[in-house]
Amino acid sequence: MELIIYFSGVVFWALLAFLIRNRKGQIPVAALFVLWQLSFSGYLFTKLNTNWTSYFKNDALSVIFISVLSITAIFTMVNSFIYFQHRNEKPLIRSIYLLALMLFFGCMTGVFLSNNAGLLWILTEATTLAIAVLIYHERTIESLEATWKYVFVSTIGLSFSFIGIILLDLSLKGSGGVDLFFSSINHSLLINNAILFQSAFLLIVIGFSIKMEVFPLHTVCVDANSIAPSPISALFSTSLANVGFVAIFRFFKITTYTPMHAWASHVLYIIGALSILYAAIYMIRVKNYKRLVAYSSIEHMGLVALGIATGGLAWFAVILHLIYHSFTKSSLFFQLSQLIQMYKTKKLMGVGRYFKLNPLGGMVFLLAFILILGIPPSGMFFTELMLFKTMIEQGLLWLVIVIVLLLTIIIWIFTKQLFRILFKNLGQQQLSTIQPSPWYESIPQLVLLLFTFYLSIQPPDFLILLIQQAVLP
Amino acid sequence: MGMLFILLFFVSLFYIAISGRLFTVLNLLILQGLLLFGVAIIELNEINIVNLLIVLLETLIFKAWFMPNYLKKVVNRNNIKRQVNPYISGFNSLIIISVIIIGNLIFAYYIQNTFLKPAYIAAAFSGILTGLFLIISRKEILMHLVGYVVLENGIVLLSFSVGKEMPFAVNAGILLDILISVLIFGLFINKIGKMFEDMDITKLTSLSD
């Protein structure tokens, strides 16, 4: 019942925002929608571990990620309106954006709550529909290309997952895998066909890798990320990546009940390591700062994939890591939106002296970079440390060394480009054309970053308890 | 009867791979839609009537009528009749498709399972792989769409073959089909057709580092 109310609310606000074409009129609707989303996630906190039919379940994992999603929603809405203000679009296009954005939030909430493999898959597919409209928002040839590639690859990838889910069900038939309801799966599964099971898991991981932005289907994500409006990129590489994580994590949990556990871990180790390798290699030659940040998402999700594979304490670490990553990466993207606005280019060559032109924005950048690179006191430093420690305990010292070397390369490139953005000198002629964006537009990002700092230094007890519950086998 | 349909499905895969004329390819898609309709009637007689009706409508109207005809309209409007030299020629394509089909037949018999009929599994996976092969070996976006439809047909066939045990899979498969096809066909072919006149994927290369 509660779910019906929530989803019909989402549809209602979305339609309302679509029908009101006036920007001033849309602001209260967007605010009410965010309030709706926040109050729903607050409600979920009070109703932990409730079942709505057998298809939806509210477990600790879903509560964590829905809360992260709702907090990001506040800032996404604020930044979307800042973005509109600078662009003067046609009212219809703006309405379509808001409609798609609200439905996108609804779909993602649904994915986090779904307790059935098939339902999870359908809702993930639905997020593709919504995000496609959002990526295409600017209506340029590049955005068309990015959308086309994303939709095409994403659909094919998700068709793979669908095949994987069918095969998984077949391979678990008669062994306690009750029609793939996650919460009712038997903790000691027998597999009646190992090859079917292995191909099923591979197909599922390949398919959802496009949502989680890890190897092998991550390339189109970088394209889409660099082209989409920045508030959307923020969601794209945080909340949507969390959707992919939740999907892969839930399926991986099934493998831990079977004799195939070690094999599945190896698959994810390979995927994680290759993602980080890919990110490091491509970052070296990157020329576009939005792509640089997009590659950083791939690196972080690669770390998360390693964490899923490692198990134990690493599961705890990666969920915490994802929370920090979501907030930091989204504020970074929000700030990039202003950078594009100011310099009118996404090329690294054309930017510089940001600290001078916009001191508060420069501070936001500096803070965000400290957090995202995992420099203490960033929370990501501790989660990465925890992850590496668990990996070393499992005898994977060599892999940790390789990963740390790759991370060093990434930190070097990031720092180099950060200094270029903040301090590089620009020619007089170039400087005269630049209109610095007003300082108050950086306030939302600053708030979000300070909140992340607070979470890093002192994660609240209830959050720790929730994560502990979420990683229970 | 079911076996005959499967056999025809295999033949249609061969024919799609070698055919250079776009209209022939689209007619073959109509044939595949009809074959799926037939398979659904034979295989899915045990699931409940509403589900069955949806499946039959989907295969007959959506797959065998709406989609191919829509693509034909696009072909006519853009005045493209033949494929421009694909990356892999017709004869080599034929060899690759044969390898795919034989490989899948071996795979299907190898994974013997009480819930699966080997011929159906082989046909489904051949469809999926042929679709992928078309996508990577052809240059026109239109042929990519055809490849995608063939891939989808394979998936629908797979979900039919397990439909008695998992009615849910059939519904989900069809949902996938309709949702995405509407998006891809309705929204993008129009836009892409307008922006890139000859709809060649070599035009889509502006995004890179």
What would you say about this model in short?
The complex is a heterodimer of chains A (473) and B (209). Chain A is mostly helical and 473 residues long.
Number of DSSP E strands of chain A: 2
User: How large is the share of residues in beta strands of chain B?
Assistant: under 5%
Rg of chain A (CA only): 21 Å
- Helix and strand composition category of chain B: mainly alpha
How many H/I helices of chain A? 20
Oligomer: heterodimer
The overall average pLDDT of chain A, rounded, is 90
User: What is the CA-CA span between the terminal residues of chain A?
Assistant: 29 Å
Distance between the termini of chain B: 54 Å
Give the SSE string of chain A: HHEEHHHHHHHHHHHHHHHHHH
Strand and helix layout:
The complex is a heterodimer of chains A (473) and B (209).
Chain A: H1 2-19, H2 23-46, E1 51-52, E2 56-57, H3 60-87, H4 91-113, H5 117-135, H6 141-172, H7 194-212, H8 219-227, H9 230-236, H10 239-256, H11 261-284, H12 289-310, H13 313-343, H14 354-357, H15 359-372, H16 379-393, H17 397-423, H18 428-433, H19 443-457, H20 461-470
Antiparallel strand pairs in A: 1-2
Helix pairs in contact in A: 1-2, 1-4, 2-3, 2-4, 3-4, 3-9, 3-10, 3-13, 3-20, 4-5, 5-6, 5-10, 6-7, 6-8, 7-10, 8-9, 8-12, 9-13, 10-12, 11-12, 11-17, 12-13, 12-16, 12-17, 13-15, 13-16, 13-19, 15-17, 15-19, 16-17
Chain B: H1 2-18, H2 22-43, H3 49-78, H4 90-110, H5 118-137, H6 141-161, H7 167-195
